[in-house]
Write a structure and sequence with these properties.
The protein is mostly helical. The chain contains 6 helices and 3 strands, in the order H-H-H-E-H-H-E-E-H. This is HTH arsR-type domain-containing protein.
Length: 125
């Protein structure tokens, strides 16, 4: 009966099931994906960057707005923005002397929603 439950759990998972006969090409692709995912997670694995992504999940913000929201100096905010930009998670837009940032795509928003559900929502407290 225990094996039946294990198989049932595997079917419900979004993760693929791998066997000894998994092709070399598939394993190489997995390693490439793991490298990309690790880089992504390292980029968000800092409180300041995570909060920045959280704020940007609700829409575009200027550097000045982010400084205020993060209660941080411009130099510290700029350093975190540079790392997020380097990782391709955010994109800048200049309007006169003001620089605005927004999320580059939906990956960060999806992760921030998951983090919120797991750690911040009232149902998980």
């Amino acid at each position: 009966m225990k094996d039946s439950n294990a198989n049932s759990d595997q079917r419900r998972s979004a993760l693929p099931i791998f066997h000894e006969d998994t092709s070399e090409a598939t394993l190489d692709k997995m390693m490439d994906n793991a490298t990309t995912a690790a880089s992504f997670l390292k980029a968000i694995g800092h409180e300041g960057r995570m909060m920045t992504l959280c704020y940007l999940s609700s829409g575009e913000k200027s550097v000045r707005e982010l400084e205020s929201l993060l209660s941080a100096r411009q130099a510290a905010v700029s350093q975190q923005l540079a790392r997020l930009r380097l990782e391709g998670l955010i994109v800048p837009r200049r309007e006169g002397k003001t620089i605005y940032y927004r999320l580059a795509d939906d990956r960060a928003r999806q992760v921030m929603e998951l983090v919120y559900r797991l750690f911040c929502s009232e149902e998980n407290k």
